[in-house]
Amino acid sequence: MDTADGWLAFDTAHLTLSNGLLRLPILGASGVTPVILEASTNRLDWVAISTNPPQTEPIAFTTRVRTNLAAQFFRAVVRQ
What we know:
Elements: E1 7-8, E2 16-18, E3 21-25, E4 35-40, E5 47-52, E6 60-64, E7 73-78
Antiparallel strand pairs: 1-7, 2-3, 3-6, 4-5, 4-7
């Protein structure tokens, strides 16, 4: 698991988009402290949109994708 500075890497080979829902799996993340998914439209103002509790199976977030043309960025971080 890549936790340099607390940031995690998305498993981009396994991203899926279906019916407006984006599934974002995280590489090698399981059994860790809570992981927070944050979103932004400008990469400056980040908002926490989801938190996964510690778990033994691989962590993946599912979030609704915006339907307007605004850019949408995501990042995941481990918070102690």
